[in-house]
Amino acid sequence: MSxxxxxxxxxxxxxRGKKAAGENAVNYIEDGMTLGLGSGSTVYWALKKLSExxxxxxxxxxxxxxxRTESWAKNLGIPLTTFHEIQELDLAIDGADEIDANxxxxxxxxxxxxxxxxxxxxxxxVIIIADQxxxxxxxxxxxxxxxxxxxxxxxxxxxxxxxxxxITLRDKENQPFISDNGNYILDCQFPLITDPAExxxxxxxxxxxxxxxxxxxxxDRVILGQDDELHYLEKPKGGQR
Length: 241
Ligand SMILES: O=C[C@H](O)[C@H](O)[C@H](O)COP(=O)(O)O
Known about the structure:
The structure is a single chain. The protein has helices at 3-7, 13-25, 41-55, 67-76, 113-121, 153-161, 196-204, and strands at 34-37, 61-64, 89-94, 98-99, 105-106, 123-131, 144-148, 166-169, 171-172, 175-176, 184-189, 209-212, 214-215, 221-226, 229-234. By secondary structure, it is an alpha/beta fold. The strands form four sheets. The protein has a six-stranded mixed sheet with strand order 2-1-3-6-14-15, with helices on both faces. Strands 8-11-7-12 form a four-stranded antiparallel sheet, covered by helices on one side. A three-stranded antiparallel sheet has the order 4-5-13, with helices on one face. Helix 2 (13-25) crosses helix 3 (41-55). The N and C termini lie far apart (40 Å). Residues 38-42, 94-97, 107-113, 116 line the site of ribose-5-phosphate (R5P). Keywords: Isomerase. It is an enzyme of class 5 (isomerase).
């Protein structure tokens, strides 16, 4: 079964929620905008809807946050640009693996966290789309993806484990998973994460760590879907980008 056919099966309420949230996010796109195109199965639906509007004459340009998104966008006829041409984007639309009440995110389930963070931080506004199951009281129910340099990854993993995490080197078909940037991903199961900013700041200082999947104060709005029903979460007042 192709990846696209798999996504389009829409078996569960959460599958249908991803579609509803992804399609709804396209309402925030205006003619002439430059877009950050996030990664994952929820973003797939946003791209599909966006492609319909592009066919009807909407003028936008996007920067994809993964090779997979780039290939989808090309197949769907969405015009692309690069950071060589433009360094600030109007709006990024991206998925997430966990979302807490402060709109802090845990991301990287698909291994695209580095490019996603570059794209999101380059965007004036970030809208996160997800099914309702991604909403959590506290981040860290699932392992935190951390992208690391392959050289000496064992040393980096040991240092992270000293911070209290159980580490698994992500694999794909019995080989280490390689990110779009040629790096490894360590899936780090911490006890629940009480202070995402502090944990990110600690991890990012370790030599060998390229980026963490903690996205703190980056999301401006979250659209959560379950079946056809949508719920919106706004960044708490006083939050900064
Ligand atoms: O690396 C992957 C990304 O962070 C995705 O945005 C995240 O895993 C959510 O993916 P999905 O929409 O497939 O649940």
